[in-house]
Write a structure and sequence with these properties.
The protein is an alpha/beta fold. It has helices at about 10-25, 40-45, 75-90, 180-190, 215-220, 225-245, 250-270, 275-280, 295-300, 340-345, 360-365, 395-420, 425-440, 445-450, 475-480; strands at about 5-10, 30, 95, 100-110, 115-120, 125-130, 155, 170-175, 195, 205, 290-295, 305-310, 315, 320-325, 330, 335, 350-355, 385, 425, 490. The structure holds NADP nicotinamide-adenine-dinucleotide phosphate. Pfam families: Pyr_redox_3 (PF13738).
Length: about 500
């Protein structure tokens, strides 16, 4: 017997979809989750220093404000607790199956159902399939010679080992992305010596963060409108940053120059050594890859137990790392803050075979990365991929989720109204959407900035910056409410 809906992934995206469909009275929903609990990235990531980098008033569902955030930028554990709260409040846990890895899904045209294959060998059937597998869910192990022969402890940031004893150890950390920037100051506090292996520097601006005073939290709880006002103000600021500095770089590039100047001044105030400053200064435009916020990162490099190594790595030895110039750094613990295999393993995260045997991964790789409204692809009926090309909108992921919830609601209402068996986006609508998005990218920092050498994961393997939706949050929300329903074919 087929389920009505299978959702793959019990993070905020999957939970948002389940809440929306539940409101419509669809009850036979199963949420399959690879991990042993819900929360997605906020369940998996628990490295020291983990905190959200979008203010928490905005980084949460608008319909489920949390007056209890302890800081402006809440620590990761609070996001995980918030996810649990949402699951309990909306009674989602009963829909979830944990420790279930989905390997693939195949469209059965005769039955108009998806057959979903699990790693256990079990198969499930469903009328509708929604993948909510996250953008950053497949940890990347760097392809560096000798890494498998390293004799000490290896820890990836997304598979943190709480038992690992780091006190006094000679730690090497590879990676200086948003994770590295949060992790490095924490590791430096406990390491005997810490070597930071940097391939590409990151733009780091000051982090204005503070504990939310008790009376403010009380006010947020008693008068939710005050928290909504704070959310609105912060959201407007983030929306301005994104639309000016990222999407309309053609007109707003001076803003990026200013942001770069701020980051340089921040570094100048915190790093006295000129050579260290030079090594930490990015050579690409601000905005080409996700910049980050920290007040603790730069000062770490002044510590006597920290070395910044910016020469390229030649190979990993059993007891250290050898650089291209022959220098060897002896280490006993290797921390990989090397990010995620986004395009290689996440688009899509499972093998999806649609109509006429079309493979979604092959389609994207052989043509271009594309998805109508960042959610639907021709030849994939009854399928919505929440983490698609052009889906991520604005700076807070919750904006993406909530626009997608509206989109799903409209499609499922129409399915019900027409008593349809199948729904599939038309080739025409998909092509038009792709054309619009591609056109808008022409004004963005990704096409007009100096992004060579940024190694930004915003760019897909074809060299197109298709991860982010080049539209304002307001625009994406409006599109979710107004896209012509005939962009889908119902049968
Ligand atoms: P990332 O941005 O992809 O950074 C990975 C780092 O590892 C980069 O510095 C990369 O260098 C380096 N690296 C990868 N392979 C390497 C190799 N073979 N040799 C040398 N260096 C290598 O990953 P991330 O730092 O985990 O962050 C990913 C995203 O997660 C962020 O952009 C952000 O969206 C999100 N995040 C959010 C928060 C938050 O909200 N608080 C915190 C952490 C992360 P190259 O740049 O040279 O490739």
């Amino acid at each position: 017997m087929a389920h009505d809906v299978i959702i793959v992934g019990a993070g905020f995206g999957g939970m948002g979809a389940a809440i929306e469909l539940g409101k419509m009275g669809i009850d036979d929903i199963v949420i399959l989750e690879r991990e042993d609990d819900l929360g997605g990235t906020w369940h998996v990531n628990r490295y020291p220093g983990l905190a959200v980098d979008i203010a928490s008033v905005t980084y949460s569902y608008s319909f489920e404000p949390n007056p209890n955030w302890s800081r402006l930028f809440a620590p990761g554990s609070e996001l995980k607790a918030y996810a649990s709260h949402v699951a309990n409040k909306y009674d989602l846990r009963r829909l979830m199956r944990f420790g279930v890895e989905v390997t693939g899904a195949t469209w059965d045209a005769d039955a108009a159902e998806w057959e979903v294959a699990l790693a256990s060998g079990e198969t499930l059937r469903t009328r509708y399939l929604i993948t909510a597998t996250g953008f950053l869910s497949q940890p990347k192990l760097p392809d560096i010679e000798g890494i498998e022969d390293f004799a000490g402890t290896v820890i990836h940031s997304a598979k943190w080992d709480d038992e690992a004893d780091l006190e006094g150890r000679r730690i090497g950390v590879i990676g200086t992305g948003a994770t590295g920037v949060q992790l490095v100051p924490e590791l430096a506090k406990v390491a005997g010596h810490l070597t930071v292996f940097q391939r590409t520097p990151i733009w780091v601006v000051p982090k204005i963060d503070f504990a939310v005073p008790g009376p403010v939290r009380t006010m947020f709880g008693a008068l939710p409108i005050t928290q909504r006002a704070a959310r609105f103000a912060n959201s407007v600021a983030l929306e301005a940053l994104n639309t000016v500095g990222v999407l309309n770089y053609k007109y707003g590039h001076r803003f990026n120059d200013l942001a770069a100047l701020l980051a340089k001044a921040h570094m100048f105030a915190q790093v006295r050594d000129r050579r260290t400053r030079a090594a930490l200064t990015p050579g690409y435009s601000f905005g080409c890859k996700r910049p980050t916020f920290s007040n603790a990162y730069f000062p770490t490099f002044a510590r006597s137990n920290v070395t910044l190594e910016s020469t390229s790595i030649r190979r990993v030895l059993p007891d250290g790392i050898e650089m291209a110039d022959g220098t060897v750094h002896e280490i006993d613990t290797l921390v990989l803050a090397t990010g995620f295999s986004l395009w290689e393993k996440n688009f899509p995260a499972i093998e999806v075979i649609g109509r006429d045997g079309q493979s979604l991964g092959e389609f994207w790789r052989e043509t271009r990365f594309q998805a109508y409204e960042g959610m639907a692809v021709p030849k994939f009926p009854n399928f919505f991929c929440l983490h698609s090309p052009y889906s991520y909108t604005g700076l807070s992921y919750f904006w993406t989720i909530e626009a997608q919830m509206v989109h799903l609601r409209r499609v499922f209402q129409e399915i019900e109204r027409r008593a349809a068996r199948t729904v599939e986006v038309t080739e025409r609508a998909n092509a038009e959407f792709l054309g619009t998005m591609s056109g808008r990218l022409g004004r963005s920092v990704f096409q007009l900035g100096s992004c060579e050498g940024s190694r930004s994961y915003y760019f897909d393997p074809h060299g197109e910056a298709t991860l982010l939706r080049p539209s304002s949050v307001i625009g994406a929300r409006r599109d979710a409410h107004t896209f012509p329903i005939d962009d889908y074919a119902f049968a």
